[in-house]
Amino acid sequence: MSDFIQIQGLSKRFEVPGRGAHLALDGIDMGVREGEFVSLLGPSGCGKSTLLYMVGGFVKPSQGQILVDGRAVQGPAPERGPVFQEFALFPWKTVLHNVMYGLRVQKVPAAQARERAEVLLEMVGLSDYAGFYPRQLSGGMRQRVAIARTLAYQPRILLMDEPFGALDAHTRTNLQNELLGIWERDRKTVLFVTHGVDEAVYLSDRVFVLSGSPGRLHRIVDIDLPRPRIRAELLTNLRYQQYVLELENMLDHARHVRSAA
Ligand SMILES: Nc1ncnc2c1ncn2[C@@H]1O[C@H](COP(=O)(O)OP(=O)(O)OP(=O)(O)O)[C@@H](O)[C@H]1O
């Protein structure tokens, strides 16, 4: 059976005014199975976000193609839901209306949209904040709203660009757990960009390591740890520690590939 997401010979060249062309990604071939949780790890600037944006259909490849369920990605679609930092919440809408927004755009009747948004807010633990505005929430709460808003579209793929990067350690752990809970219930396919090796190991079925300048696929690591995963238990699990170490070393090597390029 072919992969759910097929990335074939994908390259991206950016034209930078006054500085010519910059090859951000070069010849990426990779496949992601349906329902799989995949993290992208790599040195800063290696093209992780660009790759995610291309799967989202927000950025066009210079070469190659991306197929989702056998169909070429031509642009953004509700089946590929982004949770990107820059897709900020609407400050003038309440939490409830932020979550309802995508459903209303898709012409879901108001009562039905409200019902679904309420279920999602409950799922991310924000039922009591439905009437609040984003400015009245903490960063972690805003990120939960953003996740609920994306889930409202019922995407088949969640595209997450360092969604917990800016949060304190405690909030990050809570949201990682929630995300795993949601993923275990729904088994959406997740593409997750992170700088955190431990986060990648904790969450993922597989970790794709990129090297930089230009970004290339360096290694793929299968994370063979049982689920459901409990973070406190994993921290003392020898296999978990070995994965973290292996990936740290791989990242060091990927950085070296970059400086040698
Ligand atoms: N719109 C753009 N125009 C020109 N260059 C760009 C553009 N977007 C990204 N780049 C360049 O492409 C390369 C990859 O950027 P990208 O943000 O995808 O990397 P990243 O791996 O996500 O980085 P980080 O880990 O620091 O977030 C970088 O060199 C960046 O400067």
What do you see in this structure?
Keywords: ATP-binding, Cell membrane, Membrane, Nucleotide-binding, Transport. Residues 5-237 form the ABC transporter domain. GO terms for molecular function: ATP binding; ATP hydrolysis activity. Belongs to the ABC transporter superfamily. By secondary structure, the chain is α/β, with parallel strands linked by helices. The protein folds into two domains: 5-79 and 157-260, P-loop containing nucleotide triphosphate hydrolases (Rossmann fold, 3-Layer(aba) Sandwich), CATH 3.40.50; 88-154, no CATH class. Helix content is 38%, strand content 25%. The chain is built from eight helices and ten strands. The protein has a six-stranded mixed β-sheet, sandwiched between helices. It has a four-stranded antiparallel β-sheet with strand order 2-1-4-5, with helices on one face. Strand 4 and strand 5 (71-72) form a beta hairpin. Helix 2 (95-105) packs parallel to helix 4, helix 3 packs across helix 4 (139-152) and helix 6 (197-203) crosses helix 8. The longest helix has 23 residues, at 238-260. The radius of gyration is 19 Å and the shape is globular. The relative contact order is 0.17. The protein binds adenosine-5'-triphosphate (ATP). The site of adenosine-5'-triphosphate has 12 residues, from strand 1, strand 2 and helix 1.
